[in-house]
Amino acid sequence: MARGPGLALRSLPLLLLLLLAAMTGRAAAQDNCTCATNKMTLCLPEYPGGRCQCRALGTNIEVNCSSLTSKCLLLKARMSARKSGRGLVRPSEHAIVDNDGLYDPDCDHQGRFKARQCNQTSVCWCVNSVGVRRTDKGDQSLQCDELVRTHHILIDLRHRPTDRAFNHSDLDAELRRLFRERYLLPPRFVAAVHYEPPTIQIELRQNASQKAPGDVDIADVAYYFERDVKGESVFSGRSGLDVSVRGQPLLMEPPLIFYLDEKPPQFSMKRLTSGLVAVIVVVVLALVAGVAVLVISNWRRSGKYRKVEIKEMGELRREPSL
Ligand SMILES: *[C@@H]1O[C@H](CO)[C@@H](O)[C@H](O)[C@H]1NC(C)=O
Ligand SMILES: *[C@@H]1O[C@H](CO)[C@@H](O)[C@H](O)[C@H]1NC(C)=O
Ligand SMILES: *[C@@H]1O[C@H](CO)[C@@H](O)[C@H](O)[C@H]1NC(C)=O
Ligand SMILES: *[C@@H]1O[C@H](CO)[C@@H](O)[C@H](O)[C@H]1NC(C)=O
Ligand SMILES: *[C@@H]1O[C@H](CO)[C@@H](O)[C@H](O)[C@H]1NC(C)=O
């Protein structure tokens, strides 16, 4: 970098200009280098023209910021963010029964849950496409042949008290619009919206043959929605949920979510114990042969963890507190 003073002086204004341009250019590229659909990412302007490349925290898998990120990558990113909280204490193993379904999952290269999940010890179990355990826990010899698809999701929630009930068909239309616009879910996958004030139930259905390449998965949609309703939105820079029906605000309580897989789960009843990752309720759905175990993931605002409960098949009851 040895240069004559004459050259430096003569080109100083130009150099300064270039420097300024480079700095503002870089700042601008970094300013808008964020992932609209996933704030748990690290984005750098790596593509030509300063276009962002965004990678999920915790895995470094590249994510598509025009679509939803898979639930597996989101859980993974969330766990990696937690681990980095060095100033915090770690709750004792006995203190936490995680009804949020939160664990540090293994994701495949496409960001889907691997069929078999293990924790840091040698305890393993099989999960469905929403990452919820669907077998007993076993040791490392446990085999999970395939990732069983969750093809039906029931989201059950209440809205906050209002002066008058919502009009069902308007509510239905508004929720379908929300799912289409915010979560990019084609309306054909919203199978039904049931309403009996103040309870709203949203049914999402999507089997593998109906899902076209590029379609979002109902597993991811339900997870984004759940986080939005809890006020923990995954979207970056986007305001929280703002839904109103004919001018009347719709404020939703945290949902209870039921997942139904294409194949019945494989729990041996006697081995069900407390301390499960999720609350498990056994139901018989009239139209579904066999037993469907629906797993509820819910996080109560109070910050307390709900006790695990196991119901016999034949009924779906809910505790009054749910
Ligand atoms: C950032 O903004 C500039 C100008 O507004 C634009 O040319 C560029 O493509 C944007 N980059 C990203 C990653 O959005
Ligand atoms: C990202 O997602 C959008 C919307 O689904 C899709 O059109 C686009 O092709 C995807 N881009 C990549 C690189 O996969
Ligand atoms: C792994 O799971 C087993 C059984 O649930 C549990 O006893 C153990 O504490 C877990 N280990 C970790 C590191 O989470
Ligand atoms: C709900 O609104 C629709 C139009 O959006 C109307 O046709 C219907 O009568 C309303 N239902 C009730 C019960 O008010
Ligand atoms: C997928 O859903 C469609 C419409 O509900 C149904 O006709 C089709 O048989 C289903 N396919 C499978 C493999 O379940």
From TrEMBL:
Keywords: Disulfide bond, Glycoprotein, Membrane, Signal, Transmembrane, Transmembrane helix. Residues 1-29 form the signal peptide. The chain crosses the membrane at residues 275-297. Its main location: membrane. InterPro entries: EPCAM-Trop-2_C (IPR049420), EPCAM/Trop-2 (IPR043406), EpCAM_N (IPR041630), Thyroglobulin_1 (IPR000716), Thyroglobulin_1_sf (IPR036857). It comes from the Eukaryota. This is Tumor-associated calcium signal transducer 2. It comes from Phyllostomus discolor (pale spear-nosed bat).
